[in-house]
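Forum > Structural Biology > Help requests

Title: Can anyone predict the 3D structure of CxC2-like cysteine cluster KDZ transposase-associated domain-containing protein?

Hi all, first post here. I have the sequence for CxC2-like cysteine cluster KDZ transposase-associated domain-containing protein but no way to get a structure on my laptop. I'd be grateful if someone could post the structure tokens.
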Amino acid sequence: MVRVKKLKMTESGFKATDTHYHSDVNAAIAAFTWKEIVLSDSQLNAMWDRVHQSAGWDQGYIDSFVNMGQLPPEADPELPKTAQKGDKAMHEWTQHADAFLRALITLEGPGGSPDCCSRCQVSGKGCYRCLCCDNLGLVCEACMVVTHQNLPFHRIEVWNKLYFVKVTLKSLGLRIQLGHPSGDRCLRPTAAWGDDFVIIDCDQIHPVGLDFCGCGRSSKGQVEQLLERRLYPATVVNPKTAATFRVLETFELLQYESKLSTYEYYQTISRLTDNTGLHVPKDRYPTLLRIVHQWRHLKLLKRTGRGHDPIRGVSETRPGECALLCPPCPHPGINLPEGWEDIERGLRFLYALNLALDANFRMKRKDCSSEAADPGLSKGYAYVVEESAFQEYLKKHENETEPKSTCSRHDAVNLADMRPGQGYASSGIATVECSRHNAKRPLAICDMQRGEKYCNMDYITILSIQLCFLKLYLISYDIVCQWFIHLFQRISQIDPSSPLLQSDVEIRFLVPKFHLPAHIPACRNRFAFMLTPGAALGDGEAPERGWGELNPLATSTREMGPGTRRDTLDYHFGDYNWRKIVRLGDSLFKKLKTATSDVAEHVIAHQELEATINPEKLRSWTEAMTAWELDPANSPNPYEVLVKTPTQAAVRRQMAEDEEKALAKGVDVSLSDEVSPCSLIAMGIDLEGE
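Reply #1:
Sure, ran it for you. Structure tokens for CxC2-like cysteine cluster KDZ transposase-associated domain-containing protein below:
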């Protein structure tokens, strides 16, 4: 950016009268008609002094003006404010955009490279280049094949005297030999079926010349030979397509982070291969879809140690065995000290399990495919329940209807029997997760067939803690005030040995903090986190945070078959738990600082408050609170408001009666004949509420 000041001769000297900004020096010069003024050195110095005083320039600006140079944006106080703010590097880059553009255009041709091969120096044959190699230059066909014996998935172009054209290494004579070390020749190579093998990589779909070992040196089959080279075959019989491990690993993490669909990713690779539409590669999208599904299932088994079991195979994986457990949550026999069962009742919260239940109706699934056509690979191995047992359970409860809410008009209760809509097989999913650390529980995800039915929530609650026998559970749910009624009766019919039915177990039901104000006052006292011992600073909204991350995946999963959808949810929830685990240190440290930062101030404030209360009343309050915390079922709730307050309708009626008596005595304080004091106050309350 060039700044140009127009000077005007006055009695006191030169003054800057006009300012223009131009992108380059030539435009700045052309903007004015310059008049040559001959001045002595002393006159020139005096002029600049005047200009400095009137325009506020320092010597650096004066020199830049004299030389018509370019002023840096941050050094020019009169540069437009939009150029002084924002990304400094971006503003600096705009001054060099032409140079960047010239460099990109230069790379579209051979540039200054000589015709000779940069490797063997043979003249007139340097017409091939690799877009993946660094500084290889233009080489001949033979050198290109030699240098890419171990780099068969690079992108090659040839100069045809007008422009570069894409070519394959296969067309140059490169063959990929499997079953042998690099450089070792096979005496009897066997070409892939039809010799039209295709490999999907991160940046291109490659037709390659591929040979299997047929000389007997390698005793491995074709599938094993491909896997040995980190190539995943599309089929187990006469494979003709494979994907590199690199493309599968990249897409796996990319989809976990961005919820990108397999179709969009494949289309990206296809366009990188040919973005003109003239030489579109043969469609390998269904192949990639199948490979990705198998790859993630194998990763699920591998990461949970199923490949190291010498006795049980994959098919004997136990329900929930591949789920990642939340490390800080209590797990008997894993992370609890000896004798934890004998801890006094008042300290049970140290080994309590905090659960949160919720449903998500954005994760619908269309009524496409079937269990027979798409049964899935994971049979309840991780987070989603095993389907056949779940369907048998639902058949026993298909005629049940949920009672209407005795609390507020909760849609989760009143719309529990609502169907998902025409063309949909599932109305959403339900979950149970750790509300303290936001981690999914094993076997804690199931489909919702209609609305938020109790039988679905009961099923996943029981399965998620079936092997977790503890002394205290804190369970939060949006409509827990309705759901917990007859809960133990329903659980006894499903699983009489459930940990929730043990004689010495204690269960405290809670309503998440965000949802609590929608409940009636009795619920707000009974199910409040802040009034429940052991609930600490939890809020019960953990599932809501997870839904926000999962919802972008709904556009993909709603079109999937039942098995593929369950598997996809398993994989994404596994990654969700893994990210929670690796960030657990920072998360717990942040919570620790929050809990301890103001503890001294809170203790002092509490002590000062107690000092103002009558000791006898304080003692009775403390006893009532302690009794309720130890036995909330049989002790009165000390936080419940016992004072009966009049309703708004009763107050209005009383005010109307008072006005009537005043008018009978001839007293009228109304603002007008149409608005009485009572109606004016009522209107104000309504406005405040709106």
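Residues 1-16, 19-40, 54-76 have pLDDT under 50 and may be disordered. Residues 251 and 265 are 8 Å apart (CA to CA).
Shout if anything looks off.
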